[in-house]
Amino acid sequence: MDLNTVLDVRDARRREPWRPGDAFLGGGTYLFSEPQPHLRRLVDLSRMGWPPLAWQPDGSLDIAATCTITELSRFGRGLSATAAPLFEQCCRAFLASFKIWNMATVGGNLCNGLPAGPVISLTAALDGTVLLQGQDGATRRMPVTEFIRGAGVKDLRDGEMLRSVRLPARALESRTAFRQASLYGLGRSGSLVIGAADPRDGSLAVTVSAATSRPFRFWFALPPTAAELRAAIDGAVRPEEWFDDIHGLPEWRRHMALLQAEQIRRALCPPAEGPR
Of the candidates 178, 188, 228, which has an alpha carbon nearest to the alpha carbon of residue 211? Predict the structure, then answer.
């Protein structure tokens, strides 16, 4: 779609004062998908030269905001970490054409803050943290689960950009389980639940997304019972936080999320900790 209110496109490598009507341009799959009458200038990040994915000395993984879904998928397929299958599972939940995969970015998926954003699901489930950078160069880091505050609502200050998201080494060692549900065979996720079992201490994290307006990550030091898991989800997610749109009613989303969470508990808990 033509954005006929945009008067200029600036290379982000060239520092200029931020002004009203500015927006960062990553892949543009959202910006050019619908009218943006409030925009006057785009700040293009495509030439920043950030490595799409980079290992850190402590074994954690940094994913650049400009990393595309195609690059993320390709990396996941070659990854030897235990949690590697989760990368492709979440990329496939994107349900987009190869043209979108080649342009859509990790940063764009996170900054849109949509409940069904599969990169949000992936990074929240693996205990990811986002690195945010202001116009003055100052940075701050926070968990993905705190960065996304609601449907389309995120903790971004004026002129601040998402630089990268970091996945800790320990999370990449986790055994994972993935459950996704949609009203249609090729429809947007109505509920997406991911489990991550830590092989070191036996803890379990269950992350609920798509069904809710923001991602919820539940951590249990010991594998929970079915009743404990259900109580944790129902105690944390307020009725109005079960998302409601054409892709699923709140009641159906809650039902599916609870069902999927229990399936994940059974799949990841040791045999001795089976259904109780």
Answer: 188
